[in-house]
Design a protein that fits this description.
Shape: globular
Distance between the termini: 35 Å
Helix content: 25-40%
Strand content: 15-25%
Number of helices: 9
Largest sheet: 7 strands, mixed
Radius of gyration: 19 Å
Strand order of the largest sheet: 4-3-2-5-9-7-10
Length: 293
Amino acid sequence: HTRFKCDWSSDVCSSDLIIAAHLQEKISAVKNSENTVYNTSKNLIYFSLFLSDEYLELTEKCLTSIARNTPDLNFDVLFITDEAYKTKLLEKEILKSFNCKFLVLKTPVDGVDASLYKLSIVDFPELNNYEKILFLDSDIMCLKDLNLIFNNEFEAKKLYTKSNLNTRSSLTFTSATHGLMYLTERDAQFIYDNTDIVPFNAGQYLFVNCSQMQEHFKNVKWLSKIWSGQYFFEQAFMNYYFALNDLVDQAVLFEKISIVFSQVSNSPTPVKTRSEEHTSELQSHLNLVCRLL
């Protein structure tokens, strides 16, 4: 196994092996389980919002752009948030355009903790009322009908993701931003054999609601709680789990969306904080979505 920037005499390495072995058992159990797909023909978009009035404003702008460009709002909108921001959201006029739901959780300690709350989608009591689940970061602007995404054919068992243009290399899985800076021999072999699978941006993803995917999300939550090493927000855990275990599909959203980064800071990538201030644009050949970070 490989842990980068680590004292090889540390006991952490042996604990990593135990966690990795147990994780593989959990993943195999899910893959071999009976998969119930919730074919309800009803879709859900969800956001995770905590701690920041700036992101509250961005969420409002995102919802406004969706309402303006999507004639048939045939999906519900869920906010994973706390009591304080639920109150602030309900004051926004744009929410009247949508059928809104709330999953209220305790206020996170910081932005890193808040980022992990998107995994709590599996704790939403009404989740099984929905077929396709789309997560969007607050800093996304919709420029065309959002149903152009929902109307695609999606396979259950896969997380549909989009890679960053500046991470078009499987080697990026060894960085803190897209992995846990740790690889077993199995992980390394998977990367070697699957060079077409590259790290993805966790600011947007879609999955077909099914019992297996729900268990996968629970496993990622488990990993995030037990992991004692370095990580970069929820993105590190999601890449390590989904991308390195053949659970992502990067083709569908690749055809629809491109992500372009314009870096305005040369600061080093800090673990557990944002990597850098930057502007990114997320748009398809249909000008579907524009994203500003």
